[in-house]
Structure formats: structure tokens, C-alpha cells
Amino acid sequence: MIVVPDDFPSVFEGSAAHDRARALGEVRVITARGAEDESELAGRIGGATVSVNIRAYARFTESVFRACPGLKMISIWGTGTDNVDLAAAARHGVTVCNTPGVNAYAVAEHTMALMLAVARRIPGIDREMRGGAWPRDMLVQLHAKALAVFGSGAIGARVAQLARGFGMDVLTWSARGDTPAAKDELLRRADFVTLHLRLVPETQGFIGRREFALMKREAFLINTGRGALVDRDALLEALASRRIAGAGLDVFHEEPLKPGDPLLSSSCTVVSPHNAGQTPEVRRDGLLAAIENVERFLAGTPINVVRA
Predict the structure, then answer these.
(1) What band does 178 get if pLDDT is binned at 50, 70 and 90?
(2) Which terminus of the chain is less hemmed in, N or C, by CB atoms within 10 Å?
(3) Whose CA is closest to 114, among 266, 254, 256, 224?
(4) Is residue 29 located within the same domain as residue 48?
(5) Is residue 96 located within the same domain as residue 112?
(6) Residues 6 or more apart whose Cβ sits within 8 Å of residue 235
(7) Mean pLDDT, rounded, for 187-210
(8) Please, what is the end-to-end C-alpha distance for the chain in angstroms?
(9) Plot region of 78 (φ>0 → left; ψ -120 to 50 → alpha; else → beta)
(10) What is the distance of C-alpha 207 from the center of its chain?
(11) What number is the average pLDDT over the span 214-237?
């Protein structure tokens, strides 16, 4: 049996991917809230062989794997795997697959949109004009500025391509090969820093107080990767002290953000609700790719397998 335990808000039920999954056997889709609770998630999975993971709030932990001995495969809609204990999955013989690259164009475009919005102060200027003002602030252009792209996967590569189209000097860094010294050099040189790294223990708090101290005061931070790539307290301090010029953020340590969160009141931030990849094309193609992962796994030829 295939189970989708976390289709809330619902995107899978009634989709082309849902129809395609039915050709593989019994499919159970749960569209109610509650999968963020581990025991509830385990109960929803039950004796299923395959789980299609829609939402990052559903956390596949050691206790979930222990409670679901029949589970053999998780297919994630999306790239991030930080909600799955990959080591525990390996111990329990569960194959984990994701859908890399499907959202690359959409997330890269959103990254550039945040970059432009925070550099050009578009949200703030819009509010001021609607209040009757005619602001004449100096703005920041992208042309000839240095952009440090941390992460060389599909999204990072697409951001680099778009940024070159703006005439930016693109500097890239990969967790697979570059050194801490190279990271520091990029941070010192960059006018914009954008994060597209996989969240693993080694990248938790990838940007913290030390890194903010290396950055130019005129620099902007853009994060469409994962909130925990940045030390939250260090970010708030950097913004409050104008250690950096501002930040464009689509991801946060806690989602959704609570009303009154200081990131919402900062005049130096532009924020969006973790929706960089929310386009009809990404939804359609990503869900179909997640089911293709299931098809290939059941056929004995798994693809997009994520290793611990």
C-alpha cells in the first residue's frame, strides 16, 4: 500500500500524480492536519510499504521507523531531506528518494526577486507611496556587484546563470569540494550572499556571528534554502546593528512565523512564506516525479536515492 500521510494543505489528492499512483495499487491519502506529531504520523503510515512525503513538518524519526516495520520506501516531494533521519532510515532498510531539480527554475527566480526587492526596497517604498509619500532613497543595483552562491546544485547553478544575466560577478562555493578559507574569502568579497545548501549537521548554522563579521556592511543575505542554515540570533543581531544591509528570506527556523516575530518588524528584511517553489508547473512536475520514484523503486531500479 502507498500512503500519503501529510497532504495538508492538500496538493496531492485528485492530482495527475494521484491518478498515476493508483495504477500501482491501493493508495491512501490523508488531508487532515496532525502529521507533525510522530505517533500520529506512524499511525497514518501503519502497515504501508511506501510513504509519499508532501510536507516538511512530517518528521520521519527513529521512533516512526520502529513503529512502521513494513515501510520500505519514502518518496519526498521536493529536495530537502532534513525532516527524515537518514541514518535511521538506513538502519531500518528504508530507501529515501527526493525530486531534485524540479523546482530549480522557480526557486532561482524567487531568489532573484528577493534580491531585487531588498536591494531596491520595493515593499517599503510601495507602503510609503500608498501612505502619500514620494520617497527618494538611494537604491542598490545588481550590475557589477559580487554574488556569492553557496551550493552548486540545480538551484544554485540556475541562480548563478540568472545573476550573470544581470551583469553580476558570480562566485560559487560547494560543500563537496571547497574549503573554509574559500568560504571566508567569498563572504568578504560578496555584496550579496545566497544560500542553496542541503541542511545537514555540517551546514547547520552555516552563517553565524563569525560569518556576519566577515561580510561587508553593505551586503545582503538571501536565504531560500532552509532557515537553520543561518543562526537566528546572529541574524537578528546583524540586522539590528546594521552589521549587514538587509536580508531576503523565504525560510525560517519556525514556520509559520508567529505574529510579532522581530524578522517581520525589521525594516531591513523582505520575507515570503516558504513559497519560492509554489508554481503550478513545480507542483505538477514534482508530484509526478515523486510517483515516478515509487514506480522505479517497485520495479527494482530506484532513482534519486538520498544517502545519509
Answers:
(1) confident
(2) C
(3) 224
(4) yes
(5) no
(6) 207, 212, 221, 247, 263
(7) 96
(8) 25
(9) left
(10) 16
(11) 98
Does residue 29 lie within any of the structural domains?
A: yes
CA Rg value for the chain: 21
259 preceded by a cis bond (ω within 30 of 0)? no
Q: What is the CATH number of the domain that holds 285?
A: 3.40.50.720
Instruction: Specify if 308 maps to a domain.
Output: no
| Closest listed residue to residue 7, CA positions, set 283, 213, 217 | 283
C-alpha span between 119 and 245 (Å, rounded): 9
Grid cell, residue 57, equals: 513538518
The letter for the amino acid at 109 is E
Q: Which of 242, 255, 283, 284 is catalytic?
A: 255
pLDDT digits (tens, 9 = 90+) for 38-64: 999 999 999 999 999 999 999 999 999
* Residue from 44, 110, 274, 283 carrying the catalytic annotation: 274
Cell of 257: 512565523
Whose grid coordinates read 561587508? 216
For this structure, is 226 an active site residue?
yes
Give the separation between CA 285 and CA 17, rounded to whole angstroms.
9
Contact 44, 18 (CB under 8 A): no
Q: Catalytic site residue 143? A: no
Residues near 233 by beta carbon (within 8 Å), at least 6 away in sequence: none
Rounded to whole angstroms, the Cα distance separating 111 from 201 reads 24
274 is a catalytic site residue? yes
Please give the Cα distance from 134 to 129 (Å, whole number): 6
Strand order in the sheet with 27-29: 27-29, 2-4, 50-53, 73-76, 95-97
